[in-house]
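(Structure overview)
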Amino acid sequence: SAINFLERLCLTWMFFFMMCVAERTYKQRFLFAKLFSHITSARKAKKYEIPHFRLKKVENIKIWLSLRSYLKRRGPQRSVDVVVSSIFLLALSIAFICCAQVLKGHKTFLNAAYNWEFLIWEAALLLFLLRLASLGSETNKKYSNISILLTEQINLYLKMEKKPNKKEQLSLVNNVLKLSTKLLKELDSPFRLYGLTMNPLIYNITRVVILSAVSGVISDLLGFNIRV
């Protein structure tokens, strides 16, 4: 029993250590995204002591897009995505096991000690996934903030009225801003769940397994069939 307890303790520590590393990486990504969104604002750039430049030249737009791409790729990517995907699949597996145990006998479900252990693990993993989902969502909002480009387009239109002699140059910059806006919209991946890795296979497994299990549990508890 002592050896079994020590093995569980070590495995739990290693697993939660990897989760803490993943959360730290997500926090760093959010910090970089937050500072990146303040670059084009003179007041916020001065407040956070970061460089400031306006998107009024094609060279500045090129630098802005390159910096955005560099910051999104900075830090560990594949290893963190593997950790988060593993956490998600583990939480999915535990939820499926709990649903199967409830269907087997919901009156005696809480009598077994291992079911309590499953519930504790599931609660811890869900809280952690919600934390990562919140950080990933805020990070995506910062990088996908199209209002920055729209604001720069409005400033360019105002400059065209004040400086008609530079209208051709400003029109070129405005066209580049429009193309950049379309590019940012196209870069958003359709299989992202608030920043978490979500490929089509995991999405389909989640939809089929979770909905089937939840439907079976609800039908068993209420006494009549429900199709979710």
Remarks:
- The two ends are 42 Å apart (CA to CA).
- The chain has one domain: 2-222.
- Residues 2-222 form one domain.
